[in-house]
């Protein structure tokens, strides 16, 4: 599956470059040696991607000379000859680990601005405050959208709001406004539709179901036993996918998922945490690093030892008193897919929505051992 994923990523990346005119008709592609180095893949994998491009009529190949673009991209509007203005909407309810995660993705997007001829309008991650009302959130975001309109922003990378009871409605309102103003949208990390449904917007991120399976398998360590799942209220739709991956890993190990092992609550609510631990939770998949860090802090205060894994690999994960095992997001891959998808969306607005995922990496640290069942 990993090889298949790499093959698909290379094909889509090169196809987008050709479609958007990054490689123009008649131009020779970089050498296979250079492409292998860029994509960090073997020669056979790259050859299969090039063969597929050739079969689809995007390139022709001449032995000893190289690969040449045969596809004629649609003429770019004159306005696009100047750098595109692209914006970012990242409203977060609290200053937590998601801010770090998205800042890393945005920085990776910014590094691509010269190669793909765009300017990134970015005022950092917007923290709204945990107690912000629906109207206050909308008002603040309206101000950002108006500023983007004045700056002639053509497309926005949008990370949906989470951790708010009215998040779903607010996200839809934001998207409706962007749509009304003719601003292209690419969603990052999470969809606005509840999984397994999909919205009509492009979505770039990781395969959260596969990630949930991988971290749960690591905790199981080939020894079927109780594993718990912990998330906070009003979490993003990605958490539902990670929960499904967790359940699938239990089924794979011959265990029946148990509702009593799945917990949703506030980590600042001490009775909730105490009940979680008193009910026998010892091996816990946390929905993200921030939740895992909160849990480890409470356990340290209570003198309780648990095995914990998280997601995202934020900047503090390796610096905790007990370094955190976590699933690292591939920032550069996500950024590249986001930019290529945005360029395609602006040039071909009628194309079907795309959902591109990149494989992450499990980073094993001291927060989970290999405890065997009693």
From TrEMBL:
<dbReference type="InterPro" id="IPR028082">
    <property type="entry name" value="Peripla_BP_I"/>
</dbReference>
<feature type="domain" description="HTH gntR-type">
    <location>
        <begin position="4"/>
        <end position="72"/>
    </location>
</feature>
<keyword id="KW-0804">Transcription</keyword>
<protein>
    <submittedName>
        <fullName>GntR family transcriptional regulator</fullName>
    </submittedName>
</protein>
<dbReference type="InterPro" id="IPR036388">
    <property type="entry name" value="WH-like_DNA-bd_sf"/>
</dbReference>
<dbReference type="InterPro" id="IPR036390">
    <property type="entry name" value="WH_DNA-bd_sf"/>
</dbReference>
<dbReference type="InterPro" id="IPR000524">
    <property type="entry name" value="Tscrpt_reg_HTH_GntR"/>
</dbReference>
<keyword id="KW-0805">Transcription regulation</keyword>
<dbReference type="InterPro" id="IPR046335">
    <property type="entry name" value="LacI/GalR-like_sensor"/>
</dbReference>
<dbReference type="Pfam" id="PF13377">
    <property type="entry name" value="Peripla_BP_3"/>
</dbReference>
<dbReference type="Pfam" id="PF00392">
    <property type="entry name" value="GntR"/>
</dbReference>
<keyword id="KW-0238">DNA-binding</keyword>
């Amino acid at each position: 599956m990993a090889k298949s994923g790499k093959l698909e990523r290379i094909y889509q990346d090169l196809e987008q470059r050709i479609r958007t005119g990054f490689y123009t008709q008649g131009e020779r592609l970089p050498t296979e040696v250079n492409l292998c180095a860029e994509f960090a893949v073997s020669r056979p994998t790259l050859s299969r991607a090039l063969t597929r491009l050739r079969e689809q009529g995007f390139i022709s190949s001449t032995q000893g000379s190289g690969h040449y673009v045969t596809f004629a991209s649609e003429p770019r509007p004159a306005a696009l000859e100047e750098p595109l203005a692209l914006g970012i909407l990242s409203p977060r309810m609290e200053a937590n680990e998601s801010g770090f995660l998205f800042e890393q993705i945005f920085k990776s997007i910014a590094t691509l601005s010269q190669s793909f001829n765009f300017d990134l309008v970015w005022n950092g991650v917007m923290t709204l405050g945990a107690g912000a009302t629906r109207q206050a959130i909308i008002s603040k975001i309206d101000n950002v959208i108006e500023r983007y309109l004045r700056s002639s922003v053509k497309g926005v990378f949008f990370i949906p709001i989470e951790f708010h009871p009215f998040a779903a409605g607010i996200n839809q309102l934001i998207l409706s406004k962007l749509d009304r103003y003719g601003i292209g949208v690419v969603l990052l990390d999470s969809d606005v539709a509840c999984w397994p449904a999909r919205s009509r917007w492009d979505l770039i991120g990781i395969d959260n179901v596969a990630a949930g399976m991988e971290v749960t398998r690591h905790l199981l360590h080939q020894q079927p036993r109780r594993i718990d799942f912990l998330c906070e209220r009003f979490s993003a739709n990605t958490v539902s996918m990670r929960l499904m991956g967790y359940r699938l890993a239990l089924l794979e190990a011959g265990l029946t998922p148990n509702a009593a092992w799945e917990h949703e609550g506030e980590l600042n609510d001490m009775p909730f945490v105490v009940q979680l631990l008193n009910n026998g939770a010892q091996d816990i998949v946390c929905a993200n690093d921030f939740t895992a860090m909160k849990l480890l802090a409470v356990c340290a205060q209570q003198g309780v030892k648990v095995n914990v894994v998280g997601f995202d690999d934020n900047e503090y994960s390796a610096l905790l008193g007990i370094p955190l095992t976590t699933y690292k997001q591939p920032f550069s891959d996500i950024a590249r897919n986001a930019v290529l998808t945005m360029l395609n969306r602006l040039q071909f607005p009628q194309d079907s929505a795309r959902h591109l995922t990149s494989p992450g990496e499990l980073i094993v640290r001291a927060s989970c051992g290999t405890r065997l069942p009693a």
